[in-house]
Design a protein that fits this description.
Layout lengths: L1 E3 L2 E12 L9 E13 L8 E13 L6 E13 L4 E14 L16 E13 L4 E18 L3 H6 L2 E4 L8 E20 L5 E6 L1
Antiparallel strand pairs: 1-2, 2-3, 3-4, 4-5, 5-6, 6-7, 7-8, 8-10, 9-10, 10-11
């Protein structure tokens, strides 16, 4: 961590392994990094701040059509209003680039996991005590989504990319739909066990 006056710069790494008991093709590993710069716009506890972050990661799945790279850039602003309450608001751009093109329909792309989207998000955090923190998050995203289902006339007509998806049992296809609007709400709790450990849980 590097800081000059009100500015800080941080680099962090990410490594993850996810395993599925029955759907083995969805098991995956990922390796990535994030660069974050933050600027505090003044002195004191309640001074607002701005943060710009960019990240990238490689993902490898048991299902080849899902292998690829993902990237994201976010601009966030926030402020602490008191010792127990703070909030933030931001915008994010996300992109995923698939390694493989697995077409199934002539003239239609098979890169179903080539995705991009734009999001607006907000989060508020309230400390109920010195050890218990509650968080409420809102997210609005417009962009590409993927759905794996049996072959349907609607999916064939509306999708701009289609590929066979062998990760599930039966004859199923992955469809990429663009311009989808996704709304989500999340509620989280964090209970500090001490200076270096916490138990956290969330529902979305």
């Amino acid at each position: 961590l590097y800081g000059v006056t009100y500015t800080s710069l941080a680099i962090s790494g990410e490594a993850a392994l996810t395993a599925y008991d029955r759907l083995h093709s969805l098991s995956n590993t990922s390796l990535g990094a994030t660069l974050t710069g933050r600027r505090k716009l003044g002195l004191g506890l309640t001074a607002p701040w701005l943060e710009l972050s960019t990240s990238g990661a490689r993902e490898s799945y048991g299902s080849n059509i899902r292998n690829g790279s993902r990237y994201a850039t976010a601009l966030t602003g926030g402020r602490r209003f008191s010792e127990s309450f703070d909030a933030q608001l931001g915008a994010r751009y996300d992109k995923r680039k698939a390694d493989n093109d697995v077409p199934d329909v002539p003239g239609v792309s098979g890169r179903t996991f080539d995705l991009q989207g734009r999001s607006l998000f907000a989060q508020a955090n309230l400390a109920l005590s010195e050890s218990l923190l509650i968080s409420l998050g809102l997210n609005l995203r417009r962009g590409d989504v993927v759905s794996t289902v049996i072959e349907t006339p609607f999916g064939m007509a509306e999708a701009n990319a289609i590929s066979p998806d062998g990760a599930y049992q039966g004859e199923r296809y992955a469809y990429r739909l663009s311009g989808a609007l996704t709304r989500s709400v999340s509620l989280g709790l964090s209970w500090a066990l001490g200076a270096h450990a916490a138990i956290e849980g969330s529902v979305a």
